[in-house]
Design goal:
It is a single chain. The chain has nine helices and 14 strands. It is α/β, with parallel strands linked by helices. It is elongated and about 70 Å long.
């Protein structure tokens, strides 16, 4: 499934926990992780006050030491590692390296918090998802939770324990479904299925809502049987509301470890592309999200 992974890093404090979690993918055929550091030309000027040039060799040396430490951690887990350092605009360099190395997955992003405390991903991760031709795992490993009255940092250490699969039966959602059996190999034993029926606009009130709900329930029951036949413990939900809100609410309520969804979606208006449901789930979810292209 994911034999070769690209992991661009800025050496955040969560780099090692993320690598530890994705290392379990070797049970599904993971052979090598390409560790990439990009010297981002968009984030600095080549000349600073007084005309002093940046010492790119020094930057490379510092990056190499940190990449060596990460690669050693991977190799100690039995996963091959390759180091790459490039210079240029950040996202184009990531996409170029993904193409050059012919990777099966890009691991990107960790969540930040805005002034209101909401989770969100940065524009870099958003652009990677838009431009990548392979699936992207948005790794949100560091969250804040209240445990016994105290706010604690929580890390996702069992990425594939319980998977949430939102579906609208579009071709993109059906493609996601083909990834699910492989997740059984890496420890996924439970799967939560969900379809969200959007609130219909006033001009669509003539539609038979009861017939629509019945159709959804029949499709969900068939999907539940299909997933059970593949060995999953299954729960299914047919909900009404704003899809991204209901998906994220359910992910938290069910305490899933991963959301797996397509990069495109079909809502009440067909043809809704990245920038709608999928984007908002990635943006605001507390959980890691695997976006399948």
């Amino acid at each position: 499934m994911f034999k070769k992974i690209l992991y661009p890093t800025r050496f955040e404090e969560f780099s090692l926990p993320i690598l530890g979690s994705i290392a379990c993918l070797q049970r599904a055929g993971l052979e090598e992780v390409v560790l990439l550091y990009v010297i981002d030309t968009d984030s600095f000027q080549t000349e600073v006050d007084g005309g002093v040039r940046l010492n790119l060799d020094l930057i490379r040396q510092g990056a190499m030491r940190k990449l060596d430490a990460l690669s050693e951690a991977l190799r100690s887990s039995g996963v091959g590692a390759k180091i790459a350092i490039s210079i240029g605009p950040l996202v184009p360099e990531i996409i170029k390296t993904a193409d050059k190395e012919d990777v099966d997955l890009i691991v990107a992003g960790r969540q930040k918090r805005d002034i209101l405390g909401e989770l969100f991903v940065g524009s870099t991760t958003d652009r990677i998802i838009r431009q990548a031709e392979v699936p992207v795992l948005v790794a949100k490993y560091h969250t804040l939770q209240e445990v016994e009255g105290k706010v604690q940092e929580v890390f996702c250490r069992d990425l594939f324990r319980k998977v949430l699969y939102p579906t609208d039966w579009s071709p993109f959602a059906e493609r996601v479904k083909t990834f699910l059996p492989a997740l059984r190999q890496v420890g996924a034993s439970e799967i939560v299925l969900v379809h969200v029926v959007e609130e219909l606009p006033s001009e669509a009130q003539y539609l038979n809502r009861e017939a629509l709900i019945k159709s959804v329930e029949e499709k969900m029951a068939a999907l539940e049987r299909e997933m059970q036949a593949q060995g999953f413990q299954v729960k299914s939900h047919a909900l009404i509301g704003k899809p991204y809100l209901e998906i994220n609410r359910l992910a938290t309520e069910e305490d899933v470890s991963l959301i797996v969804m397509g990069s495109h979606g079909m809502g009440f208006v067909e043809g809704m592309l990245w920038g709608s449901v999928s984007q908002r789930v990635v943006e605001y979810s507390e959980k890691p999200v695997l976006v399948v292209k």
